[in-house]
Amino acid sequence: MTNHKGFTLIETLIYAGIISGFITISLLMVYNIIDFSASLAEQRGLIESQRFLDQKLHWVLSNVSAVNSPVASSSSATLSINKIGFAQNPVVIDSLNGAVRVSYGGGSATAITNNYATTSDLVFQNINFFGRSAIRVTATLRNNLATTSIDTMILLKI
Question: Is 57 helix (H, G, I), strand (E, B) or coil?
């Protein structure tokens, strides 16, 4: 009887196929994890942009002494207000090329939305809400994966 040590060609091919299958599955899993991580970062950026924009609007519209634009009972793509005790009046918020911007005291505008979101349909409405002045803000924020919107009404203490 002959004693053979080692693998036959068929056994070697089977083991090589099993190992290459494991490597392929592992690489696909790693790719999916990396792709999901990038998608999650874009979604998180969109939500953070929406939240920051909402907070900035609430800050701008607190302690308002006058609304310059839009005038009462009208709407505009630009908001211009004067704040009580704020040295850099007027505060102006508008949108340009998909970015929401803010400027203080007539200075240059700075983007307040991040690169993960493009803003469109930004509208400010100066309305009378049961005898009180209010600003209603609507906008759509989107990126490659999702779309969200802002529709908030902020009562003014003028």
Answer: helix
